[in-house]
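Hi V.,

Quick status before I head out on leave. The structure for the redesign project is tokenized and pasted below; the design run finished overnight.
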């Protein structure tokens, strides 16, 4: 069965590219939209209290197949293929192509070239922006926002160590479906860190387990190397070295560094064993 998280298909409507592959009352080509909010929720259903599946960040593109006329749009993120409902107010037709991305874990967009002005927005790592000029230490976007230049870089900027990127998120509150330094979950942390290092990464931990790295023996948890991914059912952590991990976790409700053996024992006590270890290099 096609994964509904990655397959834009419902009984009443499906993406045109799925015609002949799935059953639906009608098929539509969809339209490309740009996320204009700093962070837009992607929900399981078109309600503000529906479960958060993931988040779309400023500048990301989404292909929209349905707009329900009540403030919600149903579509698929171009970045990782995730399907869900976004607020219509968070979307607009794309203007200029993005030129830069946010490389700091978060930064401010100011209305002018001064850090003393009240910020307009808080933008997060991997947000996409179109920079049209520079003004002193600021980059100026097409919206007229002023952002510190040192918090941005070209789209092809690649981090050398994705583990170090993950470590920057220490203390970030845990948020189911979150993928930013304002709130992040375990697989969101892995995705953001790997994407920053130039590695395409699926969104959820089960997708990551099946799609990333080289399998290692789950019994070899005492021989971990930096960058190994450790999976449990519904959870993933990143090895910092042979003895410690970094992970966003609901036990601490934050991104933390833990002794690996202690974390394994704690999670085992809840009835969950390691399901897989993946080596990323």
């Amino acid at each position: 069965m096609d994964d509904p998280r990655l397959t834009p298909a419902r009984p009443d409507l499906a993406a045109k590219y799925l015609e002949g592959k799935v059953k639906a009352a009608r098929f539509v080509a969809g339209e490309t939209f740009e996320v204009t909010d700093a962070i837009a929720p992607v929900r399981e259903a078109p309600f503000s209290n529906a479960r958060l599946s993931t988040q779309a960040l400023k500048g990301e593109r989404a292909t929209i197949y349905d707009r329900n006329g009540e403030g919600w749009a149903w579509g698929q993120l171009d970045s990782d293929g995730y399907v869900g409902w976004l607020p219509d107010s968070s979307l607009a037709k794309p203007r200029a192509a993005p030129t830069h991305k946010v490389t700091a874990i978060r930064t401010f967009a100011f209305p002018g070239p001064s850090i003393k002005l009240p910020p307009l927005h808080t933008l997060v790592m991997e947000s996409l922006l179109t920079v049209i000029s520079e003004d002193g230490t600021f980059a100026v976007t097409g919206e007229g926002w002023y952002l510190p230049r040192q918090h941005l870089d070209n789209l092809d900027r690649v981090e050398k160590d994705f583990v170090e990127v993950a470590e920057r998120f220490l203390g970030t509150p845990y948020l189911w479906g979150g993928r930013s330094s304002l709130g992040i979950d375990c697989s969101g942390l892995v995705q953001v860190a790997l994407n920053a290092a130039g590695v395409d990464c699926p969104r959820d931990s089960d997708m990551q387990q099946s799609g990333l790295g080289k399998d290692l023996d789950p019994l070899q948890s005492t021989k971990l190397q930096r960058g190994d991914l450790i999976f449990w059912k519904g959870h993933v952590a990143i090895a910092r070295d042979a003895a410690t991990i970094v992970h966003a976790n609901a036990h601490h409700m934050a991104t933390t560094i833990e002794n690996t053996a202690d974390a394994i024992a704690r999670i085992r006590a809840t009835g969950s064993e390691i399901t897989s270890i993946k080596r990323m290099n």
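Above is the designed sequence. The chain has a mean pLDDT of 97.

G. will cover questions while I'm gone.

Best,
W.
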